[in-house]
Every structure is written in structure tokens, then in C-alpha cells.
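Look over what follows to help learners.
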Amino acid sequence: MTVAIVLLTLLVGAWLLAVIEAWLTTGRLRPVAPLLAGLSHLGRESILARKPDRLFFETAPVLLLVVAVLGAAVLPLTPDLVIADLATGALFLNAVLAYVLVSLIMAGWGPNGAYAMIGGWRFLGQLIAYSMLIVMPITATAMRAESLLNSVIVESQAGLWNIVYQPLGFVLFFIAAMALAFRSPFDLPTAPGELAGGVDAEYTGVRLTVLRLARLVMLITLSAATTVFFLGGWQGPLLPPWAWSLIKTLAVAVSMLLVGYYLPRIREADLLGWCWKFGIPLALLNILIVGLLILVVP
């Protein structure tokens, strides 16, 4: 039952994000448009490249979707609504997200096309840099909770949410989540104006539908992770716990879409340089500050 509820939540969340994304792009609010677009893609011919690596080409969209769902499996919506509340849940999430890189490299290599391959290799550098900004803020939240159990991390924020306790960690995690989901302005793997779609370019039909669904589910998963680690998870007044989890997750996801809508794409050299020169030192500083607060403040 829990698995079905979580999967249904991910699908509904992906649909809502697709509606909002279309509204931001076209200015028209059409709730049925994502469903019609999905059905349209399902009815189209799935075209193959001339000399693809079929294993990589076919597996990449499915792997990305599986990674997004596995990440969501360890994130609690309520104290009792979580598929697997692992003792090392925070560590598991970080490990699972590493396979986003694998799926994007496969999507770039599989079609045997120049633009797709460039997009995949772009994401390689992007993830190596920004994965550090995922694990370091998570480390700081685990330090405060004295646990890697995600439900305990949520409970540790009962008096003060981590967005207030460690705002620097929240900002870094938010930026890294956008980079990991390759949302604009971090959409270097797809870059429609430069790479004609990049890793998406050679996918059509059912494969493209799965790939786009996986991207939306990944955004929901990373938004839920932001809610769990920094926004107090299910905690909040008046409304039931599940409602607070959904409201916060949707708010984070929409904010990521809005940021990407209003900011231009960043050059890959600047994107990586800012992370290595500023992001990682700031993440280390955040860990130091949290450690001092734990020692000084009872």
C-alpha cells in the first residue's frame, strides 16, 4: 500500500510540474496538455539512430526513471509513510543519485550521435562538481540529527528548521539539486539552442516519453529531499503531515522551475569553476559552522 501511494504521489507531482512548466512557457494553463502530449508521443514511431549501442540506448531512460523512484523510496512523507526508512537513508540517497550520471552517459553514448555524446560528457563534469554540494550539506544535517536516518533528520528540526539553522547549506543544496536535475540554467546536457536537445535529441516515441517522465520525477525526488533535509519534512501546524510534505515539495519544485525560467544558461567553464572555487569551500565552511553550533549551543 505504501509503495502504491508513493508511486501515485510521484506521478501526480510529475503531472502538476508538467502543467506548470507548460504554463510558464506558453502562458496558458491547460491541465490535460501533458496527458495529451504523452499519448501523442506514445503513438509516434520510435526512430533509431543508424548505428546505436542498443543496450545503452534502450536502458538509459528506464535507468533514470528507476533512479528517481529509488531516491524517493527513502524519503518519508509522514512518520509512517515511507517505503524504506533505512538506517543509512541519507547515504543511500546520495549513492543512488550517482547513477543519474550513468544514465546520462548512456543516453549520450547510446545513439552514437555527436550532440548527444557532447551532452553526456558535459553532464559528467557537472555531476562530479555538484555532487559534492549534495553530500556536504547532507552531512551537516546528519551532524545535527546525529543520525543518517531520514525520519530522525526530520524530527531533529522540530524546534528549528535547517533552512534557518544552516541557511548556507540550504542554498548550496538547492543549487546542486537544480544542477543534478539539469534544469535551466544548468541544462548543459540538453541545451536546445546549442546541442539541438543533446541527450534528448535522438529519442522519440515511447523512449522520449519515459525520459521526460524520468526528468520530472527526478525533480520531485530532489524537491522532496530538500523538504526532508531543510524544511522540516512533514512538520507544520493545522494540516495533516502528508499535506505539509506535499505543499513544501511542490513549492520547492516550482521555485526551481521559476529560477530556471528567469536565468540564462551558464557557460560550462563558469558553471564548473564557480562550484570548485566557491561552492565546495562554502560547503566546508557550512560543516564547520554547524559543528561549532553543535558544540556551543546546547
Summary: The chain has a mean pLDDT of 85. The radius of gyration is 19 Å. Residues 88 and 148 are 5 Å apart (CA to CA).
